[in-house]
Design brief:
The protein is α/β, with parallel strands linked by helices and about 290 residues long. The chain is about 35% helix and about 20% strand. The chain is globular. Bound molecules: adenosine-5'-triphosphate, pantoate and beta-alanine.
Length: about 290
C-alpha cells in the first residue's frame, strides 16, 4: 500500500469540526466506529482499526494523551508522541478522520465534571493508580459525546479499562456498543504496548516474565488447579524471584467482578502489573471455564 500523504489526511482539532464530519457521514447512512488511543501506534492499535473497518463505514481515531489519567509522578511528560508517524499509520489503515485535540479542547478552562465507576475503579489496577480510571472514564465519556459513534473499540490488553467503560456505558445508558478486541502479542508472548519502546534490550527479555507468569497460571487452571489462593501466591513468588522486576500485583480474579472471591469454575482473568526498570507494564489472560473442572 502506498504510504499516506499527510496533506490528504482528514485531521480535526476542534469539536465542531468532528461533529460536522460525523454528521455528514451519518447523513449518508454510514455506521460510525471510534478507536480511542493515546497515539504511539502499534499493531495492537491497528488491530482495533481493522476490526472497526470490518464493521463500520466511517472510522474515527482519536489521538490524545489524556493528562487526567496520569498521576503527578507518572510518565505524562515522557509519553511518546510521534504524531507524524501516527497520522501516516492511520492513513495507511484507511481511517476517515483523526481527532487530535489540544488539552484545552477536552478540558476547557473551568472544567469541573468527572465521571467514575466507583467500585471497579478502585480495585486491582485502580488501587495502584489512584484516580487513573476516573481520568479514563471522564475522557472516554467526552470522546463518546463528541464523536457519537455507533461502536467504540478497546483492547483486552487493558482488561479492567474495557470492563469499566462497559460499566459506565450501562450505568449512564449511553447509546453506543462497546467492542473488545484480543490482545496482540509479539511472537514470544510480550503484549504490544506503547510503553515497550522505553525498554532496553535486556529489559525487554525481563518483561517476558509477565506473560510467562500469566501463561503459568492459565496452564495450572487448565490442568485442574482449584486452589486459587495458592495459585496467586505462586504467581507472586515467581515474579518476586525474577531479577529486574518490581511487582505491583499478580492475581487471578472473577472476569466480571474482578473479585478474588471467585469460583475456580467461573470465567477468570489472570492480571499482572510490574515495573521493569523504570517502565510499568500490565498484561492479562482470560481463562474460559472448562467442563472438566
Ligand atoms: N497489544 C494490544 N492488543 C490489543 N489492543 C491494544 C494493545 N495495546 C493497546 N491496545 C488498545 O489500544 C487502545 C489504546 O491504548 P493506548 O494508546 O493506551 O496504548 P497502549 O499500548 O496500551 O499504551 P500504554 O503503553 O500506555 O499502556 C486501548 O483500547 C488499548 O487497550
Ligand atoms: C482509552 C484511552 C484512549 C483514554 O485516554 C486510554 O486509556 C488508552 O489508550 O487505553
Ligand atoms: N492504556 C492505558 C493508558 C495508561 O496507562 O494510561
Amino acid at each position: 500500500m502506498a504510504a499516506t500523504d499527510l496533506q490528504t489526511m482528514n485531521i480535526a482539532k476542534s469539536i465542531v469540526d468532528v461533529r460536522a464530519a460525523v454528521a455528514a457521514a451519518r447523513g449518508a447512512g454510514k455506521k460510525i466506529g471510534l478507536v480511542p488511543t493515546m497515539g504511539a501506534l502499534h499493531e495492537g492499535h491497528l488491530s482495533l482499526m481493522r476490526a472497526a473497518r470490518e464493521e463500520c463505514d466511517y472510522l474515527v481515531v482519536s489521538i490524545f494523551v489524556n493528562p487526567t489519567q496520569f498521576s503527578p509522578h507518572e510518565d505524562l511528560d515522557r509519553y511518546p508522541r510521534p504524531i507524524e508517524e501516527d497520522l501516516r499509520g492511520c492513513g495507511d489503515e484507511g481511517v476517515d478522520l483523526v481527532f487530535h485535540p489540544d488539552v484545552a479542547t477536552i478540558y476547557p478552562a473551568g472544567d469541573q465534571t468527572i465521571v467514575e465507576a466507583v467500585e471497579l475503579s478502585t480495585i486491582v489496577e485502580g488501587a495502584h493508580r489512584p484516580g487513573h480510571f476516573r481520568g479514563v472514564t471522564t475522557v472516554v465519556l467526552k470522546l463518546l459525546n463528541i464523536v457519537a459513534p455507533d461502536v467504540a473499540y478497546f483492547g483486552r490488553k487493558d482488561y479492567q479499562q474495557q470492563l469499566i467503560i462497559r460499566q459506565m456505558c450501562r450505568d449512564l445508558a449511553l447509546p453506543v456498543e462497546i467492542a473488545t478486541c484480543p490482545t496482540i502479542r509479539e511472537a514470544d508472548g510480550l503484549a504490544l504496548s506503547s510503553r515497550n519502546r522505553y525498554l532496553s534490550e535486556s529489559e525487554r527479555e525481563t518483561a517476558l516474565s509477565l506473560s510467562q507468569c500469566l501463561q503459568f497460571a492459565c496452564d495450572r487452571v487448565a490442568a485442574g488447579e482449584t486452589d486459587l489462593t495458592a495459585l496467586r501466591q505462586e504467581m507472586v513468588q515467581r515474579m518476586q524471584q525474577t531479577p529486574g522486576v518490581e511487582l505491583d500485583y499478580a492475581t487471578i480474579v472473577d472476569a466480571e467482578t474482578l473479585s478474588e472471591d471467585a469460583q475456580p469454575t467461573a470465567r477468570l482473568v489472570a492480571l499482572i502489573a510490574a515495573r521493569v526498570g523504570t517502565t510499568r507494564l500490565i498484561d492479562n489472560m482470560v481463562i474460559e471455564p472448562t467442563d472438566s473442572l
